[in-house]
């Protein structure tokens, strides 16, 4: 059976609050735990009025406290925004409080605009991204014996599992070189999916923690009772994608029945291209699509994300997907 996990962006919906978004995330995690999801991933985004998981470690701690067995993880922490030591201490704290339940996925992109990134780390944006491989190794050392005589406390010796995230070939090559698991962001950047998976598998160098390659990919799920209802749920994410392209990010909007309300023909085509790795529709349609995706990618772990406006509909979407993946 393929391992399946959940990526939650803690969506702030139109007319709601960040507090409610985080409460919804913990409620969603409780359901996911019962439905067989192995991990509950959350992602770092900044200067976004539609996503409540900017302080990712804090949000994950809130989720962990409300659950008992599901693993919690960052997918990811955008490491160029931070000092590796601070991230080691944050996730070392989580690993101390919730032993054997914490994963740390690392990304090279800022997860925000350049001006906000400078406000986060207060240095040249490009130089921080260029140091990503060195920062990953420094972070790894903090979870082992320390770096340059400095110990992360908590964190020292805890061996928190590290993952590399990516939407291009760079992350695949780095993960392979370091012998780390690799997660591909095909839920919004599907173009290089198959090439990145092949590069990672072909170039993987075994490490003490990972003698074999381990690869996952993220896909969208908009599951409902009917195909029409699934496409209706998806329209919220289509609207958000169009808003981002227009430079007008904001809270997640309610779904619409008329595609013309999403955007122009060109904008809708762009959104559908970016979101094309998506299981949409009835339980039968979703199951068939997921089986086809697994057959063509052979991933070890499937990460499902369902950016849906209504909380109950989102819970149901993930439940339908879990039922399709459970033997």
Description:
The protein is of the alpha/beta class and 327 residues long. It is 45% helix and 15% strand. It contains 12 helices and 9 strands. Strands 1-2-3-4-5-6-7-9 form an 8-stranded parallel β-barrel, surrounded by 9 helices. The model has no long low-confidence stretch (mean pLDDT 94).
Write the layout of secondary structure elements.
Elements: E1 3-8, H1 18-35, E2 39-42, H2 56-65, E3 71-78, H3 84-97, E4 102-107, H4 114-121, H5 125-130, H6 132-142, E5 162-166, H7 169-178, E6 182-184, H8 193-203, E7 215-223, H9 227-245, H10 265-274, E8 278-281, H11 283-297, E9 301-305, H12 311-325
Parallel strand pairs: 1-2, 1-9, 2-3, 3-4, 4-5, 5-6, 6-7, 7-8, 7-9
Low-pLDDT regions? none
Tell me the quaternary state.
single chain
Largest sheet: 8 strands, parallel, barrel
Query: How would you state the average pLDDT, rounded?
Result: 94
Structural class: alpha/beta
In percent, how helical is the residue content?
40-55%
Radius of gyration: 19 Å
Total helix count? Answer: 12
The SSE order reads EHEHEHEHHHEHEHEHHEHEH
How many angstroms separate the termini? 7 Å
Order of strands side by side in the largest beta sheet?
Answer: 1-2-3-4-5-6-7-9
What percent of residues are in strands?
15-25%
């Amino acid at each position: 059976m393929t391992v399946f996990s959940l990526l939650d962006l803690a969506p702030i919906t139109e007319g709601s609050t960040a507090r409610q978004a985080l409460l919804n995330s913990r409620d969603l995690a409780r359901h996911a735990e019962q439905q067989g999801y192995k991990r509950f991933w959350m992602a770092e985004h900044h200067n976004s009025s539609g996503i409540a998981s900017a302080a990712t470690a804090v949000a994950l701690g809130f989720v962990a406290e409300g659950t008992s067995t599901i693993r919690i993880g960052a997918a990811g922490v955008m490491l160029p925004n931070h000092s590796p030591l601070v991230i080691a201490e944050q996730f070392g704290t989580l690993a101390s409080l919730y032993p054997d339940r914490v994963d740390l996925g690392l990304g090279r992109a800022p997860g925000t605009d350049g001006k906000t990134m400078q406000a986060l780390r207060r240095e040249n944006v490009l130089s921080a991204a260029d140091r990503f491989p060195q920062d990953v190794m420094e972070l790894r050392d903090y979870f082992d014996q320390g770096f340059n005589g400095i110990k992360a406390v908590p964190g020292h010796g805890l061996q928190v599992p590290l993952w590399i995230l990516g939407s291009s070939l760079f992350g695949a090559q780095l993960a392979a070189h370091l012998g780390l698991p690799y997660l591909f962001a095909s839920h919004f950047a599907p173009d290089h999916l198959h090439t990145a998976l092949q590069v990672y598998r072909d170039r993987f160098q075994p490490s003490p923690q990972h003698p074999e390659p381990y690869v996952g990919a993220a896909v969208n799920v908009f599951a409902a009772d009917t195909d029409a209802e699934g496409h209706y749920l998806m329209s919220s994410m289509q609207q958000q994608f169009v808003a981002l392209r227009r430079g007008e990010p904001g809270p997640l909007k309610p779904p619409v029945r008329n595609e013309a309300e999403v955007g122009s023909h060109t904008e809708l085509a762009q959104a559908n291209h970016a979101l094309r790795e998506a299981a949409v529709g009835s339980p039968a349609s979703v199951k068939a699509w997921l089986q086809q995706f697994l057959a063509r990618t052979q991933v070890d772990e499937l990460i499902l994300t369902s950016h849906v406006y209504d909380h109950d509909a989102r819970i149901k979407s993930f439940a339908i997907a879990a039922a399709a993946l459970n033997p």
